[in-house]
Amino acid sequence: MNALQPALHPVTGRTDSAGRLTDADPRLLDLIGRAGGAIGQVVAIPEIAALDRLARRLGIAIARSIVVADGDDDIELEVRAEPDADGVLLEIGGWRPRPAWRNATAAEHRDGDFVAVEADWVWEADAALRLTHLTLDAGARYGFDAAAMLGQPLVKLFALAEDREGGFPILGAVAAQMRFDGQEAELRGTARKVRLSADPRIDARGHFAGFVGAVQMLCEGCAAAAGAPDGAFPDGFGVRLDRSLRRPLERIIANASSMSAEVEGPLAESYAGYADDIASAGRHLLGLVDDLVDLEAIEDEDFSVAVERIDLADVARRAAGLLSVRAAEGNVRVDRPAADEDLPATGEFRRALQVLVNLIGNAVRYSPTGGMVWVRVERDGDRACVIVADQGKGVAPRDQALIFEKFGRVDPGEIGGSGLGLYISRRLARAMGGDISVDSAPGQGARFVFTLPAR
Predict the structure, then answer these.
(1) Are residues 271 and 207 in the same domain?
(2) pLDDT-based confidence at 222, cuts 50/70/90?
(3) Do 172 and 94 fall into the same domain?
(4) Which of 13, 14, 47, 419 could form a cystine bridge with 24, CB 3.0-4.6 A?
(5) Residue ending a domain, choose from 178, 193, 225
(6) Residue 8: its pLDDT value, please?
(7) DSSP for residue 34
């Protein structure tokens, strides 16, 4: 029987003192089976498993309304978990179908996830266009009381301007429940010109729930279409990218990792694999965000590094330690400098560590299973040197300049990496008065040398 068919009475199930399912009515067992569970296992529906654990821990009956996934649909259930001497009795009613959440505009506006990247600051409003969120420091920076604006109509903060056709893009977007761009306005009481854009928010029932929006400040006398020079990032792009994407990506990674580890109960093997893939993709995207933030920083004409007294051998040991888990997962051994070795140098500790994490991380990535990465330190005249050598596939002489170029990749189809790591690392090394060089040949591994001024 399909779980979405209406039921006239609740169904029941029972778990033992360890939370394992011992008995269940056919309808409940059918739902649990589709989630990858079975008799004798912990309940495979995380929401029900959580109530089961809570009832056992508190020793009292717990009743909750929950929503669970069943294929492409969602089901509202009324769950009552009552503990007794043998375990927990589950009574489950409701079984009301509801459409699964879908963002109707996602396919049309995939760039909407990056709305805040274009922004000097961001705002959110509910379906009645009352402000529910503003970037914390926006008021102080642009001359209005951000806290006082929360809960107020959007037009109390923005005086909207007509477009060339005499219309207001935001009003058309409200009517159509769709994205809008190019709504020009003025910050009330400041005479500052702004341009608004936003993506609609759709709630779990598919209803319009407001907007998530961006504000772009317009300078006096600037052409509306003015942009960054060809090939350059807009000012502040990296910072806005980091601010907009870091927290969502970290939540995606954390939740997907929890699903993969089956923290809330068992999952079908395919779903656990999907969750692991999502977490890996999230880490890759977070690494790309880090690279783009660093790229913008090092290409700023005001970029500088601190001049510190550091022990380059200690930095190398720390970098190798940070990569120990990744190396173990790939069955690669990292031979780091001995604990009693030191190599006094001048540079910025944080940036030197970043360079070595990138070099050793690359060596681990390209090493074969069972391979070895050597990290050695030595002094060469007035240079302090860290050598990172691996047993990977090597780099042909004709490609050795390419790998240090921005977005330079020998094999663009290769999985992993952004083509920015070595470019950023060499720029950082040179900013600290050092350099990075490579000595390699196809099939003979690679040997990278990172140098800084010796003390």
Answers:
(1) no
(2) very low
(3) no
(4) 13
(5) 225
(6) 45
(7) H
Partners of residue 196 on adjacent β-strands: 183, 215
CB atoms inside a 10 Å sphere around CB 107: 8
Which run of H or E residues covers position 354? helix 349-365
Q: Per 3-state DSSP, what percentage of the chain is helix, strand, and coil (rounded to 5)?
A: 35, 30, 35
Q: Are residues 433 and 323 in the same domain?
A: yes
201 touches 195 (CB < 8 A): no
Burial track 280-293 (b if 16+ CB lie within 10 A, e otherwise): eebbebbbbbbbbb
Please give the Cα distance from 237 to 293 (Å, whole number).
Answer: 8
Tokens at 335, concatenated: 């031979």
Asked whether 56 and 83 are in contact (CB, 8 A), the reply is yes
Q: What is the pLDDT of residues 392-451, one digit of tens each?
A: 888 888 888 888 887 766 665 565 566 778 888 899 999 999 999 999 888 888 999 999
φ/ψ (deg, to 5) at 110: -65, -25
pLDDT band at 301 (very low <50, low <70, confident <90, very high): confident
Q: Contact, 429 vs 451, CB < 8 A?
A: yes
The sign one gets for the Cα dihedral 171, 174, 178, 179 is: positive
Who has greater pLDDT, 288 or 429? 429
Same-domain pairing of 354 and 415: yes
Q: Are 419 and 404 in contact (CB under 8 A)?
A: no
Q: Three-class SS of residue 332? A: coil
Residue 55: its pLDDT value, please?
A: 85
Alpha carbons 296 and 406: distance in angstroms, whole number:
12
Q: How many CA atoms lie within 13 A of 49 on its CB side?
A: 19
181 and 277 share one domain? no
On whether residue 232 sits in a domain, the answer given is no
CA distances to 64, 77, 452 from 67, rounded to whole Å, are 10, 6, 58
Q: Which residues, in sequence order, are CB contacts of 279 under 8 Å at separation 6+?
A: 252, 253, 256, 257, 260
What backbone phi and psi angles, to 5 degrees, belong to 62?
-125, 130
Cβ neighbours for 206, distance < 8 A, ≥ 6 positions apart: 99, 101, 102, 104
How is 213-242 classified by DSSP, letter by letter?
A: EEEEEE-TT--TT--PPTT-PPTTHHHHHH
Predicted confidence band at 219 (pLDDT cuts at 50, 70, 90)? Answer: low
Which residues are within 8 A (CB) of 429 and not within 5 positions of it... i.e. 6 or more apart?
Answer: 355, 435, 436, 450, 451, 452
User: Is the pTM of the predicted complex or chain greater than 0.85?
Assistant: no
